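Suppose you are handed a protein chain with no further information: no name, no annotation, nothing but its sequence. What can you learn? This example shows the usual starting point.
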Amino acid sequence: WDWFTGLMFGSILSATDPVAVISILGSLGAPKQLSTLIEGESLFNDGSAYVLFLLWKDYVTGIDRNVGEAFAYILRLSLGAIGLGLGMGLVMCLWLSFIEDPITETAITIAAAYLTFYVAESEELKVHVSGVLATVVLGLTLSRFRESISRTSEEPVKNFWEFLSSYLDLLIFYLTGIIVTDQLFHGEINGTDVGYLILLYVFIHIIRGVTILTLYPILANTGYGFDWKSGIIVTYGGLRGSVSLALALIVELENDVDRKTKDRILFLVAGIVFMTIIINGTTTGFILQALGMTDAKAEERRAFKLAIQTINHRSDGLQADLRDAPYYCDSDWRVVRKHLPVLYEGEDKNEVKHTCGRYVSYKKNSPYEHDHDHDPAKNSANLAKNSTNLAKNDSGNVVMKKRSQMATGEEAKHHPHDYDIELNDEVKTE
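A reasonable first move is to predict its three-dimensional structure. Written in structure tokens, the prediction is:
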């Protein structure tokens, strides 16, 4: 191999896939900061590795650039992708904020993700930025403005993307397995390549360990609670997965790369993915326990958290059912949601607290804009009893309107569902 082929191969193996390690860390109660660090590293590794892969692949296939052109190319791929992903993400979040339907919201996220990648990579549009990095930024934008997804759609959207991610991972592994098996029997892979694979497995851990050691002073002093135990787990937890396999498959499709090089790259990448998942993925738990980084009550807290999520989900379902009921169809459900409690864990992890008004927003100068200090229980009872839209009229009097007719409060008390109640501040408080 020449230098450019080696650099391209290195960029392929730079992309980490910590799904198995994150799952183990969560199940054993390892520090949350450690999971965040490993997951965040993988997130940005995927985008940066893809940018470098495109650069080195161009050199390998005969597209030559000087240093200045290469630097400008990297800036265009990365900064352009960030701008595209951020713009598409903001448009997607704005669109989602006007919709309350799980199927429609899921479809919007799918369309936004694939459209972002298509625009970034399309030869016809000549945008020429990193599609992977743009899609990563799109996802980060949605995560930042997650309230744009309605409460009733959060779970369906999440479940769909988890399924799609698992399905696509499975598809990539399946295709790679077929190709590698064919290479073993009909390609140019031999015993020397198996020896290189074992050496490569050892050296990727040594190189990763040296990198972590070099960055240790920064990591230890930036709020992550990073110590030597965390360094061991981060070094050992650098699994490779579907992203590396996908990049190797891209090389496999290149006609300008010779067959022997393509076969060797795919074999070595597939071998490293297999070994890190089988060896590192299955033994990380034992290392965590040996280092004393596990929590015996992790399973109990996970069940506790699941119970809270189930209660909140059931509450959302009941709201959806009540909105369709004839007696409550005219209610202002923004106000109702404001006063409904949302459960969450207390500071001691064994305490359930609740909050009100987390998911409601009001227009400027709305009569509810400054209504945060009222007793949630009283307001909820009042809304459930009257099932009406509250508003303040110009004179501040208690009046009720039935279609085009006006009625006094006494008349409407006996038929509360037929009227729109207009209350002043004093009556609202009562």
